[in-house]
Design goal:
Elements (H helix, E strand, L loop, with lengths): L2 E5 L5 H8 L4 E5 L3 H11 L13 H7 L4 E4 L2 H4 L5 E4 L14 H13 L4 E5 L7 H12 L6 E5 L9 H6 L4 E4 L3 H12 L7 E4 L1 H32 L3 H9 L20 H14 L5 H24 L8 E5 L14 H11 L3 E5 L3 H10 L7 E4 L12 E4 L21 E4 L6 H9 L3 E3 L5 H4 L3 H12 L2
Parallel strand pairs: 1-2, 1-4, 2-3, 4-5, 5-6, 7-8, 9-10, 9-12, 10-11, 12-13, 13-14
Helix pairs in contact: 5-6, 9-11, 9-12, 11-12
The structure holds uridine-5'-diphosphate-xylopyranose.
């Protein structure tokens, strides 16, 4: 059993701390007293509300409460840890670069308070080289004579599935240039994960791996999104193409769902950050620059489908949005595509009725969008807003509640437009909806309704492909 301190009680810090507490003694530190008290109340069964929404997290914290110590006091946090994991935010600045001010501050506080030998690992997503910077800050500010090593241990959990992702990860990536420290980190993880999932490496490779993984996944989505637009143009179905390529194990079936664009706190931020970093290093990653451009263009493409149906005049038009989080099962609205669409619609005079399966997502939407008050209504029931005043339904995320809707409850709609931003309705349902006079629009599946213009394609080939 090792003594670990987690620096930062956010989306990464709390689930990671809870996971480590299965087999290690964990101190979770955050200078924000309110966050620490919120976790304490949950652990002590006085409340069921955490500041982050994660399935099974509360149970995990309670189950391991004997191994968890919470504090907002830096001296207490750094009393005697063998490992420190830094899990603070690295939000992008106006240039798309990761802002390292919280990392700096963590390093300075560690330097001022560390009083025993320790390995410091950075979990936050940072530009490669940051561990060296942290090492220099600590070395410079160190108050006590202790030995320390700094490395990287990026986190790959996805929001909404953090507990499960931590329990059964595909791999644990960590890097440290100090061989002895690297072996100690390996030893630490062998108590938590199967040893064939462990990927020890150098510090820089580990830091770069985090960006590389998110950029690769985002590129898969953008690749499918650009194919989806071609599918709509010629009359193919992107879901069928997805199936056809995804079954090739070299490609893999995950992260191939075309959508109105990817969002969240990681893909947009990390693709920007690595693209910018590579330019600054004179080694541009033009493929990732394209990934970013395609993502923006896909959202625009989807939004234009909506406004075209109303001849560019949205004044007095009412939309329902199912799912406002950047994906299902999260209250996180950072870079959420449904939020972006909602704002554009409201900016152009429409009213939006919003439902999400996570009540916290609605609370956050209201808090962050007070300037739009009067232009939106929040709902805790998926169907209560449907009436003959509703003109369109927008499916914002991939929650299964939206996959097979109760169609009888939608038939009162004035204009029966359904915009499937995540391509989740199946062909059978789409055809059935069409029979009921609904108009279905998506990103790459319009052919299910519109068929294809065979004659046009044949004359295109005759014209462009025959000498
Ligand atoms: C992601 C990575 O998956 C995780 O490993 C990393 O640590 C953090 O970033 P997260 O942002 O929580 O996790 O969500 P994820 O499930 O990856 O989805 C990101 C976005 O891509 C969402 O908007 C989602 O709807 C979208 N997406 C995902 C698609 O549009 N199509 C897909 O096929 C998959």
């Amino acid at each position: 059993m090792s003594r670990v301190t987690i620096f930062g009680a956010g989306y990464v810090g709390v689930p990671t701390g809870a996971h480590f507490s299965r087999t290690h003694k964990v101190t979770i530190y955050d200078p924000d007293t309110e966050k620490i008290n919120t976790i304490r109340k949950v652990i002590e069964n006085q409340s069921d509300e955490l500041h982050i929404h994660e399935k099974d997290l509360i149970e995990l914290l309670r189950e391991n409460h004997e191994n968890i110590f919470l504090t907002d006091n830096i001296e207490e946090a750094l009393k005697n840890p063998e490992f420190i994991f830094i899990a603070v935010g690295t939000p992008p600045n106006e240039k798309g670069r990761a802002n390292l001010k919280y990392i700096y501050s963590a390093a300075e506080q560690i330097a001022a308070n560390l009083s025993n030998d320790c390995i410091i690992l950075n979990k936050s997503t940072v530009p490669p080289g940051t561990a060296y910077l942290v090492e220099d800050i600590i070395a410079k500010g160190l108050k006590n004579k202790v030995n320390f090593a700094v490395g990287s241990c990026p986190e790959f959990l996805a929001e909404g599935t953090a507990v499960e992702d931590l329990r059964t990860p595909d791999r644990i990536v960590y890097g440290c240039d100090d061989r002895e420290a690297l072996d100690k980190i390996t030893h630490f993880f062998t108590f938590l994960q199967s040893s064939d999932s462990l990927c020890p490496m150098t510090t820089l490779s580990s830091e770069l791996t985090k960006y590389a993984a998110n950029a690769m996944l985002a590129t898969k989505v953008s690749f499918m999104n650009s194919l989806a637009i071609l599918c709509d143009t010629i009359g193919a179905n992107v879901r069928e193409v997805q199936e056809g390529i995804g079954k090739d194990q070299r490609i893999g079936s995950k992260f191939l769902n075309a959508s109105m664009g990817y969002g969240g706190s990681c893909f947009p931020k990390d693709t920007q950050a690595i693209a910018e970093y590579a330019i600054l290093q004179d080694s541009p990653l033009s493929i990732i620059e394209s990934t970013i451009k395609i993502n923006d263009a896909t959202t625009e493409y989807f939004y234009n489908k909506i406004v075209e149906d109303f001849k560019d005049n949205l004044s007095g038009i009412n939309f329902v949005i199912w799912g406002i989080g950047f994906k299902a099962r999260t209250d996180d609205l950072r870079e959420s595509k449904p939020v972006e669409i909602a704002k554009k619609l409201m900016d152009n005079g429409a009213h939006v009725h919003i439902y999400d399966t996570v009540p916290g997502a609605l609370v956050n939407f209201e808090r962050e969008n007070s300037k739009y008050s009067g232009s939106f209504t929040l709902h805790h029931d998926q169907y209560e807003m449907f009436s003959n005043e509703i003109d369109g339904l927008i499916i914002g995320n991939e929650h299964e509640k939206f996959r097979n809707p109760d169609i009888d409850k939608l038939t009162t709609m004035k204009h029966k437009y359904i915009y499937d931003g995540k391509n989740i309705l199946n062909n059978y349902l789409i055809r059935y909806l069409t029979k009921l006079q609904f108009q279905y629009k998506s990103v790459g599946k319009d052919s299910v309704v519109n068929g294809r213009d065979r004659t046009k394609l044949v004359s295109f080939l005759q014209d462009k492909y025959m000498d």
